[in-house]
Design brief:
25% of the residues lie in helices and 26% in strands. It has 131 residues and is of the alpha+beta class.
């Protein structure tokens, strides 16, 4: 079974916290106090938060976008928001002018970053790469 998962990334793209709550599903990755605490405690050294979309949708949902905006407002800085599917990873960033104007800035069909492979492995029922 495939399930959404996420990872909080440092400015060097090293994982800070893996977000795999028990109540996650194929179409939802619930927020939690634990995730927020990691975001807040690391707000000066985070690059962004990557999460998977097992249903293959490469763009952020409306809930994703409002969450992106709320987190950025709370910590006072703009972040990178990668979304991983089985085929591609897309990267999203605020482009303005309104608070919900996020745009895809680039995508990759493969990458050698270990966090991408681990996120894939914990999100999908079949393994892509052993890390």
């Amino acid at each position: 079974m495939s399930l959404e998962a996420g990872v909080l990334l440092s400015v060097t793209e090293e994982p800070i916290y893996w977000h795999e709550p028990a109540d996650r599903s194929i179409s939802a990755l619930p927020d939690s106090r634990i995730l927020w605490n990691h975001i807040w405690d690391n707000r000066n050294r985070i690059l962004g938060f990557a999460h998977s979309h097992p249903l293959g949708i490469i763009y952020p949902s409306q809930e994703d976008i409002t969450t992106f905006s709320a987190i950025e407002i709370a910590i006072g800085k703009r972040l990178l928001w990668p979304i991983l599917t089985k085929e591609v990873i897309t990267y999203w960033r605020w482009q303005g002018p309104n608070k919900f104007n996020y745009r895809q800035i680039y995508d990759f069909h493969s990458s050698n970053k270990k966090w991408i492979h681990k996120l894939y492995n914990i999100s999908y029922s079949h393994k892509f790469y052993d890390v």
